[in-house]
Amino acid sequence: MKHLFVAFLCIVANISFGQILKPVKWNFKIENQKERSATLVFTADINEGWHVYSQFIEDGGPIPTSFHFDESKDYTLKGKVEEVSDVIKGFDNTFEMDIAWFENKAVFKQNVEFNKSPVNVKGYLEFMVCDDQQCLPPTEVEFDFNVIGVSKDNGVVTEKVNKEEKAPKTAEKEENEVKILAKADDVQEKEEKPSEVKVEEAEKIVIEDSVGKADDHIVSGSDTPKEEIEDVQEEDNSLWAIFVAGFLGGLAAIFMPCIFPMLPLTVSYFTKQASKGSGVGKALIYALSIIVIYVVLGLIVTVIFGAAALNALSTNGIFNLVFFLLLVVFAASFFGAFEITLPTSWSNKLDSKADRGGMIGIFFMAATLAIVSFSCTGPIIGALLVQAANMGELMGPAVGMFGFSFALAIPFALFAMFPSWMQALPKSGGWLNSVKVVLGFLELALALKFLSNVDLAYHWEWFDREVFLVLWIVIFGMMGLYLIGKIKFAHDSALNYLSFPRLTLAVVTFSFALYLVPGLWGAPLTAVAAFLPPQHTQDFDLYTATLNPGAHTSKADDSEPRKYGEIFHAPLGLKPFYDYEEGLNYAKKVGKPVMIDFTGHACVNCRKMEATVWPEPDVYSKIANDYVLIQLYVDDKTDLAEEDQFYSKYSKKDIETIGGKWSDFQASVYNANSQPFYVLLSPDEELLAKPIGAIYDADKYAAFLNSGLEKYKERK
Fold first, then answer.
1. How far apart are CA 584 and CA 581, in angstroms?
2. Which contacts of 517-522 are long-range, i.e. CB under 8 A and separated by 24 or more positions?
3. Are the C-beta atoms of residues 121 and 69 closer than 8 Å to each other?
4. Residue 565 in contact with residue 575, Cβ under 8 Å?
5. How many CA atoms lie within 13 A of 274 on its CB side?
6. Alpha-carbon dihedral of residues 544, 550, 552, 557, nearest 10 degrees?
7. Coil, helix or strand for 141?
8. Closest by alpha carbon to 8, among 292, 302, 294?
9. Which contiguous run of DSSP H or E holds residue 645?
């Protein structure tokens, strides 16, 4: 639990400040150098207000400083690393234990004996640094001492500053050479990456205009400094989408049988207080407590997974399969197959604490509501957290839970302020169970999206667009039959007549099911295209052939086989390349600019762009005729050929899949990891326009393509 708290501090530090903090600088030197022995000295210069922890900290506390030496027969470590600086000790209330740390400067020494001269003593140290408000993640720093034996004690012989982060000790093949396309207005030297101190310390990367040309500085695609490109402003703001989804989920939860009947009882409790003002105040505290409880739940999910893990979950095939199974279980729960409940003892304990009164009592009343209503809200919360995690946003779970709890808390506060409104509420009854069942149908439909993601990522090719649409047509058709009383579930009451709201919802449901039917013959279904498998998975497609018959008027070798062409399938009859180098070489051959489309199998916005914007004549003709399209899938799980695999100094990971290669390429070169992400380049890799994300206005997207073409013509 204490380590979880440390992780939380690290995440909050990164979220809050959004900059690279380096409060510790390490210096290494050699002392007492003799013919067959020497003393290695590690010195940490620590910025004011920060502290580094000692090596000697018990389990359950912060991360201690540690030293790791490569094994070698050429030298022997004599004793353990000694702490030379004065250590500060004290009791830490956060960790509830005695800890030791260093401020301003920390010096460590290790005695070593060697069998030959010279000898290299290599390894790495790991440390954690904190101040009074934040902690930075544990950091590894490599060291490499070149020890030369001497006959006499000459004191300090060598000294160097080493800030090299840990990297593998084998030389890996690295590919994807690209020119660093840089930016604009302020010409400045880019800060060198720690892992490149020895290799690139004399090189300079210029920042110039976003449509300008960079210096001829070539680096490997797996070792590319980030390009300083402004954050892409997408029309579809993911966090707002998560908030809205959470808010709608909260509104739906109000009408669940576990919550709706409690609404008048809870409100009457507050309105019967000694004074109206006191009752309203307590109701507001109750509503605020609901929000706090659910937002904390979202923050816990954020702390456990973190930004990188949430983004990885959104494209990971295994987790998408788990998400699919979870949503099916939640749907079955809503259908009445079983109830998902928390232990009764939890609610009993919270209920007893709620009797204390005061603000603490009101908070526990809200906590009791959350526990007791879990059988109804659990599947909604689960689906919301799954969707938030799948979108890859760091604060997505917390934002989603805020939207959910905000909607759930509104009626408790409003009805306490305006008790007369309670008379307009419908009475509890069988319709509450109908709300659960309808949500069950919706969760079952949503689950299929995650199964489709898995099918696409692993190229199973059995869950194509027709299969998906048939299942959706059946699900929504059955939902319509349920709404008109032709299908009943275990806990349903007798339906003697159709109410107007129920009839209206049935009409909407049947209409939606019929809207999906033309999709079986290839109709684009733009309203839901983002959730459907790509158009190219359609076996019987009458639509794509109607798109711009005059497209593809380029040279005959445009139809030659593409690398990875047997794995990926082109959208809308286009003829993209799936390998950056191959596409770039073709662009040089035919003299056309390049459009890079960083995309993904599980990318909802990518499918929406391909279905709603790309088919527009002005857009389609430019992509098909004026650009060389290169589609790079960042979530594909196909293994790279062994000779193409490499170690990325950017991500500090072995890159073994096609998706990993292009994901690393996008992040290291363009400082972006969201999809879709569109980049316009000349064949010489000049940036022709500022990269953009999803834009659902076809005119604006066409203007983006035109700007690249105009810039390319100016430079020819």
1. 5
2. 517/473, 519/465, 519/469, 520/466, 520/469, 520/470
3. yes
4. no
5. 1
6. 120
7. strand
8. 302
9. none
**Reported confidence tier of residue 215, pLDDT bands at 50, 70, 90:** very low
What integer pLDDT is reported at residue 577 of this predicted model? 93
Amino acid at 501: P
Q: How far are the Cα atoms of 162, 183, 190, 216, 217 from residue 202, in angstroms, in the given order?
A: 16, 20, 12, 14, 12
Q: How far apart are CA 333 and CA 685, in angstroms?
A: 54
Q: How far is it, in rounded angstroms, from Cα 180 to Cα 95?
A: 46
CA distance 11 to 135: 9
Lowest mean pLDDT segment, chosen from 394-398, 428-432, 711-715: 428-432
**How far, in Å, are 1, 366, 396, 406, 435 from residue 265 at the CA level?**
37, 13, 33, 20, 21
- The angle at the Cα of 352, spanning 349 to 358, to the nearest 5 degrees, equals 125
The two counts, helices (H) then strands (E), for the chain are 18, 19
Sign of CA dihedral 157, 161, 163, 168: negative
Q: What is the pLDDT of residues 103-135, one digit of tens each?
A: 999 999 999 998 887 888 999 998 888 776 566
- For residues 223 and 695, what is the distance between their CA atoms, to the nearest angstrom? 30
Structure tokens at 484: 């008109």
Q: Of 414, 413, 378, 421, nearest to 290 (Cα)?
A: 413
Which amino acid is present at 610? E
At position 549, the amino acid (one-letter code) is P
β-sheet bridge partners, residue 135: 130
E strands, 32-96, are 37-46, 51-53, 66-69, 75-83, 88-92
Average pLDDT over residues 23-38: 88
The string of DSSP codes covering 270-302 is HHTSSSHHHHHHHHHHHHHHHHHHHHHHHHHHH
pLDDT in tens, 337-394: 877 665 666 556 655 655 555 677 777 777 776 776 665 666 677 666 666 655 555 5
The DSSP string of 374-443 is: HHHHHHHHHHHHHHHHHTT-TTHHHHHHHHHHHHHHHHHHHHHH-GGGGGGSPPPSTHHHHHHHHHHHHH
- Tell me which amino acid residue 54 is: S
- CA–CA separation, 583 and 588 (whole Å): 9
Buried residues in 582-597 as b, exposed as e (16+ CB within 10 A): ebbebbeeeebbbbbb
Which spans in 418-548 are helix H?
Answer: 431-457, 465-483, 500-516
Single-letter code of the amino acid located at 432:
L
Is residue 220 within 8 A of residue 266, CB to CB? The reply is no
Q: Are strands 105-114 and 75-83 parallel, antiparallel or unpaired?
A: antiparallel
By three-state DSSP, how is residue 308 classified?
helix
pLDDT at 394: 59
Provide the H-helix boundaries in 524-630: 580-590, 604-612, 617-621
Rounded to whole angstroms, the Cα distance separating 689 from 678 reads 10
